[in-house]
Write a structure and sequence with these properties.
three-stranded antiparallel beta sheet; 13 helices
Length: 509
């Protein structure tokens, strides 16, 4: 999913983006080999399954691609008005967005250094837009702190903090505290740089900066110059529990430029599926995964007709989420079966609304405000600026916060998300309409967003076992990459690795 998705303080600070299981996926893929005459059964038509199918067909092999859903894309799922959302144990939701609006329920952004994904977008002529992932006009909201220190513009938090820390370091330089650490030339150059870096006054004090925002904007005459907002004290800055999120865009996975497929994240999977020689078989719920001689035998139920069908092949590449896979009768080795059953997925909830873009009146055009608590953040739409209606992501919660949020019923979750927006933008909670709640642990055929391999109870050796394969069975997916399921780039890398192994090795019986 992205995931990283994303933004919870613990995973952000610990892993800076979810790449917390480095080494699970070899950096060098196996050399491609011909697949002429091979028949590969691929289970799951998410990004990993679609890329695997595409790669097998490029090598001349035959593909049977199965997915229990009625759509391709897996967690790359874009919702539009009229769509029906099914959640395990919940009433269905009917998406009520206005025409032309959409909401990415799963992954929603692509880093500019994800070359595998971007290469596929180029290959399949999927146009991309710039995504405003971060804006200094947005807020850090600490509801426990009263007044201006509890609702900080990101630009004010970042630049006042930089000014205060530069002021302190400058004092240490002038007092001689760093004489044993730095020679005279370095001290002089550092002092000059700190003055520029922190926007310090000539005497080394931080007295405020226009970088932090303007209390008065420039006027129509030369006598009406800009006036900076008054500087906050270091104590006031440090009191805001969301202050660490000023580092969000320093994360290598969140740095500009971020990208997004025009029209929704489902555009690439739809394009890949349309180009396959053998179209995906949708509504195909796998019921058995068996060995047959040196190959495989897969039984699936057509969810439309109710009939069981059987397909056989030389290999199977399995991309299904592990909670689903664990319940399918199979012929996996005991070690692989244990590895699948042992894994626990993280939790993630997204809550979106349709709304007039009231945030634009506060100079917010895209990016994220961090609100903490169980709803975590508010993510503003990027693009179609100044349109009459937009889709606002009012909550994107993960891990422990999502577990707590899930303890409320759907109406309670919606109320909490609305209240977070109201605290952030007083008077505008009532503008939010057409709510949609996506609890990824309740999404059929997914039952979770990603895997935190470092979570208690999860063992990275399970990923190692699955990446090793099991006779004619090979496994792929972002969850088996160093991205741990957070990003589609990992799914593509894993799929290509699995195809290379499927077409260059002979399975054991």
């Amino acid at each position: 999913m992205e995931s990283i998705g994303i933004v919870n303080r613990r995973s952000f600070l610990q892993s800076l983006g979810g790449v917390s299981a480095a080494g699970l996926l070899p950096g060098r893929l196996l050399a491609a080999a011909p697949a002429q005459g091979q028949r590969v059964i691929i289970i799951g038509a998410g990004i990993a399954g679609l890329v695997a199918a595409h790669e097998v067909e490029k090598r001349g092999g035959e593909v049977v691609l199965l997915d229990a859903r009625d759509r391709v894309g897996g967690r790359a799922w874009t919702l539009r008005g009229g769509d029906r959302v099914r959640q395990i144990g919940e009433e269905d939701q009917q998406v009520g967005f206005s025409p032309g609006l959409h909401f990415d329920a799963g992954p929603a952004r692509i880093p500019s250094h994800h070359d595998q994904y971007l290469g596929l977008a180029r290959e399949f002529a999927v146009p991309l837009d710039v995504l405003e992932n971060s804006s200094r006009s947005n807020y850090l909201l600490d509801a426990a702190q009263p007044g201006e220190s509890g609702r900080l513009r990101l630009r004010r938090a970042a630049n006042d903090l930089r000014g205060r820390l530069s002021e302190l370091l400058g004092k240490a330089l002038r007092s001689g505290s760093l004489d044993q650490e730095l020679d005279g030339g370095t001290r002089g150059r550092l002092g000059a740089f700190l003055k520029l870096y922190g926007d310090l006054a000539d005497d080394g004090r931080y007295v405020g900066s226009q970088r932090s925002g303007l209390a008065r904007v420039p006027g129509a005459t030369t006598g009406e110059g800009p006036v900076a907002v008054p500087p906050l004290t270091l104590d006031a800055l440090l009191a805001n529990n969301e202050l660490a999120m000023i580092l969000f865009e320093e994360n290598i996975l969140m740095q500009p430029t971020m990208l997004h497929p025009s029209g929704g994240m489902d555009q690439l999977p739809v394009a890949i599926a349309a180009a396959l020689r053998s179209p995906p078989r949708l509504n195909a719920e796998v019921r058995e995964i068996r060995r047959k001689g040196r190959g495989v035998r897969i039984v699936y139920r057509d969810r439309v007709t109710g009939r069981d069908e059987v397909v056989e092949g030389d290999r199977a590449i399995i991309t299904a989420p592990l909670p689903i896979l664990a319940r399918i009768p199979n012929d996996f080795s005991p070690a692989v079966a244990r590895a699948i059953a042992s894994v626990r997925y993280a939790a993630s909830i997204k809550i979106a609304f349709e709304s007039p873009p009231f945030w634009e009146a506060e100079q917010i055009y895209g990016g994220i405000s961090f609100v903490g608590g169980d709803t975590a953040l508010v993510w503003y739409p990027s693009g179609a600026f100044q349109a009459k209606r937009q889709v606002l992501l009012a909550a994107y919660s993960s891990n422990e916060a999502a577990v707590r949020l899930a303890q409320h019923d759907r109406a309670g979750q919606i109320a909490l998300a609305r209240n977070a927006v109201e605290q952030l933008h007083p008077g505008h909670g009532r503008d939010l309409t057409a709510p949609v709640v996506i609890d990824w642990r309740k999404v059929p055929y997914s039952e979770g967003p990603w895997i935190e391999w470092t979570d208690p109870g999860n063992d990275p050796q399970a990923a190692t076992a699955l990446n090793a394969g099991d006779g004619p069975f090979l496994f792929a997916g972002s969850h088996l990459s160093a991205y741990s399921g957070h990003w589609q780039e990992g799914a593509i890398l894993s799929a290509r690795r699995a195809v290379a192994r499927a077409t260059s090795t002979t399975p054991s019986a």
